[in-house]
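User: Last request for today: this protein with iron/sulfur cluster, please.
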Amino acid sequence: MKKHNIPIFIPHVGCPNDCAFCNQHSITNRASEVTPESVRTEIAESLKTLEKKGNFSAEIAFFGGSFTGIDIELQRAFLEVADEFSDRVDGVRLSTRPDYISPEILDLLETHNVRTIELGVQSTDDGVLLANRRGHTADAVCRAAELIKSCGFSLGLQMMLGMYGSNPKLDVKTAEDIIALAPDCVRIYPTVVLKDTYLEELYRAGKYVPYSLDEAVALAAKILEMFREKSISVIRIGLHSSEAMQSDIAAGPFHPAFGELVENRIWREKIEREIISLGAERLRGKDFIVRAEKGDTSKVIGQNRSNAKYFKEKYQVAIKVSAD
Ligand code: SF4
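Assistant: Here's the final one, the structure of the complex with iron/sulfur cluster:
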């Protein structure tokens, strides 16, 4: 049965912070006020569309801001609206900041239909958190993650690659720290420079250089494999594509199919290791058969045949897929 999220974007209303990279309105693409009534209508319409398609399972997902930072009465009102649909959805998931988690907040979420809490970790390096004006340290992440798990919620952690002041080594360390917190799921986002943010000022002043697309893809591939080795589910790689958001990007490694590029890179590296271990010279001019599941064929060959071209040019090897 296909799983769906019913995304309800709660823009900056929930967040008085101003992180260096964040422009809530361009990310959520929603300038209008979100009210319990508008949320009720949105959920009802989404469910109507899903129900027309037949069997499905869905979660209501409050994303876009820091849900648990919203005025407590408004939080309660949103959650009560979500409860009205509890017989038609599997539960509620929401995203928030680590320092907006407390036993009192978790008590409130527990009395409603909330199953999963996702924390925007971004980095576990205190210097990077400070440079990006996050307003909390890595300690807050550990405390919040432990509290969430001890209350029986499913835990999601979100990390960013290439923040201001970070580098590949620190990003890998963040992934290691996240693994140590044993989340149920993870999201990986490359940092892009959004217009009208402090990060854009740093970028224009030459103080911040974003990763190139190739660097970000290579690093995300490495980190994705780290999570997979520990059987941690990665539910998103790269920002959602929306035209409004793309027009708000000033610089950085944005690609609408970033996750696909990362999967292709994993295959490229796997095949390259194999070619080198078998002896690249010996394989020159030959076909190289890759066994893969049917659904992975395009990942092996790469977007626009990029992997096939790479091996042809570098090793004069023709990649062929034998699909299981
Ligand atoms: S805490 Fe989240 S929503 Fe608030 S400014 Fe930072 S990134 Fe944006």
